[in-house]
Amino acid sequence: MNIALIAHDSKKALMVDFTTAYQDILAKHQLYATGTTGQKIMDNTQLNVHRFQSGPLGGDQQIGAAVSENDMDLVIFLRDPLAAMPHEPDVNALIRLCDVYNVPLATNIGTAEVLVRGLEAGFMDWRPNYEHGSLNKDIRANLAHGDIDRD
Ligand SMILES: O=C(CO)COP(=O)(O)O
């Protein structure tokens, strides 16, 4: 499965805790993240993550584009409901696209726990094996070869 991991600044430590706790499950999947979130995950775990742009610089939109291409199977987005974001429209657009394409989306840690445990239990098997897009295939090939820039 292709899994997107995104966390606003106040939730980044929580995302690191989450990805550390569920590292064994997440390692079986292809992981994607917005720029800073992905860097923090890679700095603190052994997970390989393909990093898109930072959220305010278009990362949410890139992940939204992947959702619209059926290239994302699960989105975990630990958003901050108490802070105004300059890129609020991008955040809302990503959440909206998950609803458009029926992609399971967690916007808080409680739902994230349920989704990742459900993933491991096989609850994502309803999702057909989509032929992911060609851009995505390149990224997956890089992930498979460990060709990830961890800097
Ligand atoms: O702002 C974000 C999502 O809206 C997250 O972006 P970063 O992971 O680059 O901080």
TrEMBL record:
Domain MGS-like as annotated: residue spans: 1-151
Keyword Transmembrane in record: no
GO molecular function, one term: methylglyoxal synthase activity
Sequence positions that bind substrate: H8, K12, T34, G35, T36, T37, S54, G55, H87
GO cellular component, as recorded: cytosol
Gene3D superfamilies for this protein: Methylglyoxal synthase-like domain
SUPFAM superfamilies documented for this protein: Methylglyoxal synthase-like
GO biological process terms on file: methylglyoxal biosynthetic process
Domain of life: Bacteria
Keyword terms, alphabetized: Lyase
Active site (record annotation): D60 (proton donor/acceptor)
Keyword hit for Chaperone: no
Catalytic activity entry: dihydroxyacetone phosphate = methylglyoxal + phosphate
A matching Pfam family: MGS
InterPro entries: Methylgl_synth, Methylglyoxal_synth_AS, MGS-like_dom, MGS-like_dom_sf
Enzyme Commission number: 4.2.3.3
Purpose of the protein: Catalyzes the formation of methylglyoxal from dihydroxyacetone phosphate.
Family: Belongs to the methylglyoxal synthase family.
Listed HAMAP family: Methylglyoxal_synth (MF_00549)
NCBIfam families: MGSA (TIGR00160), PRK05234.1 (NF003559)
UniProt protein name: Methylglyoxal synthase
Organism listed in the record: Aerococcus kribbianus
UniProt lineage: Bacteria, Bacillati, Bacillota, Bacilli, Lactobacillales
Gene of this entry: mgsA
